[in-house]
Amino acid sequence: MVSARGKLAGYGYTLDRLLDIEREKILKMHELANEFISYDYYVFVSPMWNLNSPAILKAYIDNLFIAGKTFAHTINGPKGLLMNKKAIHLQTRGGQYTGTPMEALESGDRYLKIALRFLGIEVADSVITEGFDINPLKVPEILAQGQENARIAAKDFALNPVTV
Ligand SMILES: Cc1cc2nc3c(=O)[nH]c(=O)nc-3n(C[C@H](O)[C@H](O)[C@H](O)COP(=O)(O)O)c2cc1C
What we know:
CATH superfamily of the largest domain: Flavodoxin domain
Strand content: 15-25%
CATH class of the largest domain: Alpha Beta
CATH topology of the largest domain: Rossmann fold
Shape: elongated
Helix content: 40-55%
Structural class: alpha/beta
Largest sheet: 4 strands, parallel
Number of helices: 5
Bound molecules: flavin mononucleotide
């Protein structure tokens, strides 16, 4: 996949000049990107793992960065092509980061927002539900608050639709 990407982007190869295995891998990547592009609203849900998101989420996002399809190189720098689309991220955390010095270390929600904005998508404020591991007795309470916050965010999505 990496060599196919290099040949297409860096050396201007056409698909038919790739090795069969390269073509197969790159077409799978385009298939995932096409599916993603076909939607107008995205809801990402992920736990914080070691200050970031689980690796599979990063791997998924890696399939969406396709020059000429989801973003373009312009003389003014890269430009996202996925306009009029909205996303939200629901993230859960074992610890407490919001309002603490730990906040600056959070990299999963931050990266996801940066990546989606890079592609042109409008990203709403994330719904963060945190403190599960440090407040085991309060889990039902934390969960109920997280669910309520998610409902509010869903209403905001519904009341402010994108122009398609
Ligand atoms: C491998 C792993 C790493 C984790 N790293 C963090 C972390 O860095 N910070 C944190 O607050 N919670 C961390 N957690 C706790 C999870 O964020 C927490 O269990 C999760 O958000 C709750 O959702 P779940 O029920 O889907 O696991 C980690 C959990 C796992 C399994």
